[in-house]
Here is the input.
Amino acid sequence: MSDILGYKNKRVVVTGCFSGMGEATARMLLDLGAEVHGLDYKDCALPLASFAKVDLREPDSIDAGVAKIGGRVDALFNCAGLPNVFPVLDVMKVNFLGLRKLTEAIVPLMPQGSAIASIASTAGGGWHARMATHKELAATPDFETGLKWCEANQHLIDDSYTFSKETLIIWTMMSGASLIKRGVRINCTLPGPTQTPMMPDFEKAAPKAVIDAAAKPIDRFATPAEQAGPMVFLNSELATYVNGVPFPVDGGFTGGVTTGQIDLSGLLASMTPA
Ligand SMILES: NC(=O)c1ccc[n+]([C@@H]2O[C@H](COP(=O)([O-])OP(=O)(O)OC[C@H]3O[C@@H](n4cnc5c(N)ncnc54)[C@H](O)[C@@H]3O)[C@@H](O)[C@H]2O)c1
Here is the structure.
């Protein structure tokens, strides 16, 4: 089989490989001939080269997981995440602080030409509005100081899912400018609603009309494989000039909102109690 994506015998790390998009990403990378190392806090049934039980809320667990992988890492796929039915600080830890700590621990293992892709969300698509605040959190030097920032600013992070994804997007764009100096690219995807085990939690947290509106204009949810494909592309040899990019994978939602064809704020306003 041709190896146009360049994954044959590459050592790759996938977080969140237990289910959903992470599982689909790991599966695709196995099919492409990569040596796949998985990290999750739940066991993974795929035939991986290695698996380490890592809880992204726990810095020591992250360090132990990275030590277990050891050696060279050619690509990192940050797929693990938590929805905001979980405690605010847990969401911040998994979706940003732990993801960042893991990434920073893996970067020294990455040779020139390596790449990192993380899953953010269209929920973070409003990142422009609070740029200065997110840059402040992104500028904290490590997990612990980042956590202190979150504890001191709980009033800002009430909607922890949206906030964590916005910070992830801004940190990705900031890191694109610095990591490329050592030959490592970093990007993130912004998925729209996707049929994974996380969906029932979103349906608990938001009215159906809002979730359906986020699936406009395509009018259906994505499959996990439709989210894995763009992640695999971003870290591949077909994307060597793509860097620091928040990449919507949303069936046209971002384009529709940006051009005023989808009026999400109107919908949200219409649902706000008087
Ligand atoms: N499903 C959607 O509609 C949707 C939309 C936009 C973005 N996302 C994002 O996509 C990513 C993948 O989510 P999914 O939809 O596949 O859901 P999912 O629940 O199937 O996958 C999440 C994965 O993260 C792992 N995980 C959770 N907490 C962890 C922790 N503390 N330590 C280690 N691993 C942990 C879970 O075990 C699971 O394997 C997440 O970042 C999510 O925020 C999902």
Observations:
- The longest helix spans residues 160-179.
- The mean pLDDT is 95.
